[in-house]
Predict the structure.
Amino acid sequence: MSSIAAMTPQEARQWIREGRWQKPTAGMANGYTQANLAILPRSLAFDFLLFCQRNPKPCPVLDVTDAGSAIPSLVAPDANLLTDIPKYRVYRNGELTEETTSIEHVWQDDMVAFLLGCSFTFERAMLENGIPVRHIEQDCNVPMYITNIACKSAGAFSGPMVVSMRPVPHEQVVRAVQVTSRFPAVHGAPVHIGDPSVIGIQAIDRPDFGDPVTIRDGEVPVFWACGVTPQAVAMQSKPEIMITHAPGHMFITNLRDEEFGVL
Amino acid sequence: MSSIAAMTPQEARQWIREGRWQKPTAGMANGYTQANLAILPRSLAFDFLLFCQRNPKPCPVLDVTDAGSAIPSLVAPDANLLTDIPKYRVYRNGELTEETTSIEHVWQDDMVAFLLGCSFTFERAMLENGIPVRHIEQDCNVPMYITNIACKSAGAFSGPMVVSMRPVPHEQVVRAVQVTSRFPAVHGAPVHIGDPSVIGIQAIDRPDFGDPVTIRDGEVPVFWACGVTPQAVAMQSKPEIMITHAPGHMFITNLRDEEFGVL
């Protein structure tokens, strides 16, 4: 295990805070849950929380800060969300205006920060069960697709579900459903197995986000609800300001992946 | 099976809407999930939803309406929350001011309705697994206790967790944990097993709400987070207005209990 894998969440976040780590967080503080970030003004927070509540598979909420607070009291009370992520993106009226390693200069007292579960947790469960994760093998980004599955809307927020795809050998598909079902707080069970056209995906080799991966003979494409969904949906409503993590540059919580297992 | 047990949710709600059923809903539309109701002004809705989000065991959210809408679009899009519950309670500044069979005259355009999971669902799972449910055998209300377990606070809302207790034969305690863990959307796994004093309960024979039940030799008291918690917490903040169902007079959803099983 490399030294970054053996770090505690506190050590990893300190490295990040001090600017010693400005790269993606995959592989850091092994076994600890990483999370997506979305920050919105208080005026949009109820609708966004309601959207997440209504669409728990793409939008699994791990923590929500009090308005004006950057402390995620449930998952890492000793962390600071303004500095403890290696790279942030600031969007104004739906346009990316800044990429930055700290958001202390952007933060406003009426902001609410949302931490949402990410697929790293269930991918670890797959790997530990001997189920391959192709984009990790191929060292690229997971392929993501916009589907014809409508999310339940909430106030200003509506849009289609985005899914990620992992090819699974047909004899391991049932096990893949079982092991990922244990983690409903981080996307959980797949939303679709097999024929991509059923959920409105026309070209499996041309994902809408991320990179294409190889599907081998005897493998079935399996689709999970993806954390890109809430960001895409929020962005569509062109909020005056919205802050997210940069892709792959996640927040590292104090909680272990296994703590999210329901059984 | 009696005729009320065989009703569809639509039939049951129509009876209730027409004033033909003004009694508790236990046993109606057998197999369909029943829910607790809490209605609050929009200004308190974010904090309340956040409180539920942070305390999912006592406050399992099944549906939240848009502000001003009485239609629970996820769990019963053909229902009307203003008329489809047999008995409501209206609280003003924390005081019960009215018990009524319709809230059409109280409803305001800025209100948000919350439906929260109730223990009926996991009690059915227990019974179907041959685990006794004492208060059903004794035909009384479940005993409920205020504990020393602090809920995570959110804005105006804070307070202790309320739990319900069911005595379980010691050889069935593990199975009781397993079968109720399948239903995290309706309180899920117990919060405590055994010695009541550990969670701040001094007199197991004198519950804070509901009725005492017999604990037989060889039985262990098992405690689950209780849906009374969010109502008690909201009431403590003395909102200008809050509407709930009357105890036992629940909302009947279109969803089957089994649909909430995570595996």
Summary: Chain A touches chain B through 22 residues (CB under 8 Å). The longest helix of chain A spans residues 42-54. Chain A has a mean pLDDT of 94.
